[in-house]
What does this fold into?
Amino acid sequence: MATTADVRHELASLADPRRAAASSQFLQMVPGGYGEGDKTIGVSVPEQRKVAARYWRELSLAETAKLLSSGVHEERLTSLFILVRKFTKADEEERGRIFGIILANTGRINNWDLVDSSAPYIVGPWLIDKDRSVLDRLAESSLVWDRRIAIMATFAFIKAGDFQWTFRLSERLLRDPHDLVQKAVGWMLREVGNRDRAAEEEFLARRYPVMPRVMLRYAIEKFEPQRRREYLSGVA
It folds into this structure.
């Protein structure tokens, strides 16, 4: 069986200091940034996906969870790619364990790429036919990553034609102070609109005047130019 050390060794062999410097800026791993304190070694996402594809069968859940506790960003992201692959192929019992690993480690899923690579593919799909109240708890969290996980998980519901929880959490997060949550809410509303424009506009009708500008811009990104101008000028 493969171990965490095997995956770490392979990722280290792919490290690129120049890419690491660029990633550090892009993911705000700088003083005062939302990723402050994190470490990147400069492995591209496609390369990480290839590593995950090679190891997801051989690496146990325990070893994968251990990788998720790493201080290296690429090691955590690769562990999430592995967990998504495992989740897709797992039976109900193992899917539940994988969901539990995610919930127990939201503090380690601490950048937007980590959230977006896992919440829509593990958290949302697990909750499709289950009690979703955990999303209310996450949406109320003081941790920005919990709040982004909550709204991003609803992408799985949207794809199934179920918009209720996207609207529910968007209402709760309507005045969220963090732009990473604002963008995620707008993105999910846009995804609703891609499937049911009338449903999105009905939600926006009474709320768009008080929405943060970035949230609104994301939500109406696919609207016709004239309709976008109406929303942005407050006459929709």
User: Anything to note?
Assistant: The chain has 16 helices and no strands.
